[in-house]
Fold this sequence. Notes:
Strand order of the largest sheet: 3-2-5-1-4
Largest sheet: 5 strands, antiparallel
Radius of gyration: 13 Å
Number of strands: 5
Strand content: 35-45%
Shape: globular
Number of helices: 1
Amino acid sequence: MADIKEKHGWISEKQAKIMRNCISINKKITGPYKIYLNENGKEVRVTTVSNNKDDHGCNYSDMTYVGIVTQYLRSEY
């Protein structure tokens, strides 16, 4: 049986703004926000997902912990 690790969602509006600028330059289709289901089956919006609740690995001062995410659904602007 595979070891299933928790995924933790984070959101930063500063990161989303930078990602939107990169998307418009590179003409990518997906948006900066990733929509996931949380543990309760509710849709949540994040900009980063990590394997660790204590460290998201980003340097944005407004990074906020959203909670455990379970399933990726889509990307949005």
